Every structure is written in structure tokens, then in C-alpha cells.
Amino acid sequence: MTIEAFLGPPPAKVDLDGTCLERIDCGRYTREKVSYAVGPQERVSAYVCVPHGLDRPAPAVFCHHQHASRFDLGKSEVVGLAGDPDQAYAAELADRGFVTIAPDAIGFEERNWSPDGASNVSWFELSTRLVRGRTLLASCLHDISTALDYVTSRPDVDPSRIGFLGHSYGGRMALWAPAHDPRIIASVSNCGCIPFRHSYSHDTGVQAEFVLPGFAAEHDLEDVIAGYDDRTALLISAGTEDKWSRGAEELQRALGNRVELALYEAGHVFTAAMRERAYEFLRARLGPT
């Protein structure tokens, strides 16, 4: 089984045409705001954090922001410019020697086109694709791969050492992205591992981005993870009191040494201890910074 069979037609690839919009010295790293094309007449802005003093190309980590129904926030939260300080993992990883890239997902921050800039446009983005035989997940995964195209084109990045980290919505994407893009050789999913079979309840439901027609009739997240490249390592970080972490132990039992599981007596959070475990996992799998 490959997820491509369910994603529908992929979005068109275009020339990146990348450009740097601003560059800010943040002490131990420089934060760049960059822009690149993800489709015809469609550009995305992202933050790229580059550690100071690199003497060779460094590993890079895609840092996917959370959901939290905060459609006015995206890339700014993971670099520490707004929102919850516990979500500033792109900045913390840059402090530790990793190059990080953090774009806005579709419908968030600069990609939220609602009149107030903060309303939910995800179901519009989903439905207008579904009626044309496409899926929102295909677009989200395309955007991630395009961000990796951009970051691996930079001379300060080692393209053979690419990781992924996300919490909540980002934690869900941390499970799907390596199945779509084998360049990701280490991925950390925090509080976002709930399988489809545990999502058919009013307190969770299925997020718009993961509506994949027909997929859950015979498949679930185990099948997604089983499709990873053999060299790809996955850490599932989960809270025992977190509804979005339901099924974490089931995934680990089904996949064995394919998955490393870190369980915490916690809710839907990304505490300092959880983040440090994630950073150590990425350092061990991606090599020295």
C-alpha cells in the first residue's frame, strides 16, 4: 500500500524562485524570512533559522506548527515570535545547531484568506479539492516537499540529514510526511498520533487535512508508517491524558522497533522535558551539528 493511491493527483511542481525577505540576528542564530513558489501564482513564506558559526553543512529540521484553532498563527509561533513559548521548537533547535524551516500550512497565518485573518477556511480548502478529485492532504504534503526542496538547495544544509518535528497538527503531519518524502530520515510526532479508528467520536473527529476518501476502510496509521524507507526513524511522543494521543501504545506494539515511544503523564502539551527528548532523538539520528 502507498498513500499516493489515495491522495489523488499531485499539485504541479514549479520553479522555486526563492528569495530572502528579511534577515534578523537572534543571538546564536540568524532568522531569515524567505519566500518561494509552491504552485503557479502561489507563493509561501517561511522562517529559516540558521545557527551562527557553521563550518560545514548542518542537518535541517522541518518544524510544523500546531493547529489549536488559531488560524492567525503558524510559522511565527514555532520561531517564538507569537503564541505559546512551549511551541517555539524551531528556535530552540536552531540554538542547538540545527537549521530549521517553518512555513505556514494552508489556511494559517499569512495563508489565511478569511476577512478577519483568523477564521477556519480548511473545510473550503478541502471541499473545493474533493469535488475535483483531489485532496487537501496531497496539497499539504506537496508543500512540505517543496519546503524541503528549498532548504536542501541551500549551501548551509546537508541534504542527506533531514528531520521533521511537530506538535498536534504538526504531530500528525510528522507521521504522514516521511511516507511521502523519503528524504526525511528522522521524525518526531508529539501529541498527534491518534489513528482513524479512534477518531470517530465527537471529542476528536477527523481533521479536514486528513480526509482521505476510502483510506480508512481497510487502512490506518500503521500502514502509513510501515511504508517508510528502511532508514527512517520515528519517535512518537504522547500524553497519557491527551485525546489526540489515543492509540500510541497500539501503534508501537504493531510496529515494534519501527517506532520509539515516549509516554508522559500529561495532556495535550509539549513540555520542556518532552522537547528535550525530541531534540536528543533528532541529534542521535541526524548526526552532529
UniProtKB/TrEMBL annotation:
<keyword id="KW-0378">Hydrolase</keyword>
<protein>
    <submittedName>
        <fullName>Dienelactone hydrolase family protein</fullName>
    </submittedName>
</protein>
<dbReference type="Pfam" id="PF01738">
    <property type="entry name" value="DLH"/>
</dbReference>
<dbReference type="GO" id="GO:0016787">
    <property type="term" value="F:hydrolase activity"/>
</dbReference>
<dbReference type="InterPro" id="IPR002925">
    <property type="entry name" value="Dienelactn_hydro"/>
</dbReference>
<dbReference type="InterPro" id="IPR029058">
    <property type="entry name" value="AB_hydrolase_fold"/>
</dbReference>
<feature type="domain" description="Dienelactone hydrolase">
    <location>
        <begin position="77"/>
        <end position="279"/>
    </location>
</feature>
<dbReference type="InterPro" id="IPR050261">
    <property type="entry name" value="FrsA_esterase"/>
</dbReference>
<comment type="similarity">
    <text>Belongs to the AB hydrolase superfamily.</text>
</comment>
